[in-house]
Amino acid sequence: MKLNRRKFIKRILIVAASIEAVFLLKDGVSKVDTSSSKELFNAGKADSFEKNKLYPFSTGQFFLKRFEDGGFLAMSVKCTHLGCVVNANSKTGGFNCPCHASQFNKFGEVLSAPATRPLDIFPISIEKGEVLVDTRKPVKRSSYNKSQLTYA
Ligand code: FES
């Protein structure tokens, strides 16, 4: 089969467009749709969470961290760059974004760009020993400070 120059270029363009479509689809799938999951989320009994551990809540789309002093912090899974879901990094205790490689520390602060601000947090209240995370109210922040922790 003989290809003339025009057909060859056309085929190259089709292949390139197909590759781009696959990447766009992949990015779209990993984006978080928070529209249906915003609610007051009951994470469970405060004393059931071990200190210095991270608990992922995929249905609530947050990570609940209990620090060594017993304080709780609920961090959004959404990367602050373009909204991809970050992964917990068990080696560092922080988070990595699979889309453009931003990294965050255990407090959700940026360690490496392109993200420029920490992971959003959600207000926590503890009522009758239950940890309630208000996923309706993400809070943007410029850095971590201890006043963001909630204690039982
Ligand atoms: S969406 Fe996370 S680094 Fe771009």
TrEMBL record:
PROSITE patterns: RIESKE (PS51296). Residues 61-133 form the Rieske domain. Pfam families: Rieske. Transmembrane segments: none annotated. GO terms for cellular component: membrane. PANTHER family: CYTOCHROME B-C1 COMPLEX SUBUNIT RIESKE, MITOCHONDRIAL (PTHR10134). Its cofactor is [2Fe-2S] cluster. Keywords: 2Fe-2S, Disulfide bond, Iron, Iron-sulfur, Metal-binding. It comes from Marinifilum breve. This is Rieske domain-containing protein. InterPro entries: Rieske_2Fe-2S, Rieske_2Fe-2S_sf, Rieske_Fe-S_prot, Rieske_Fe-S_prot_C.
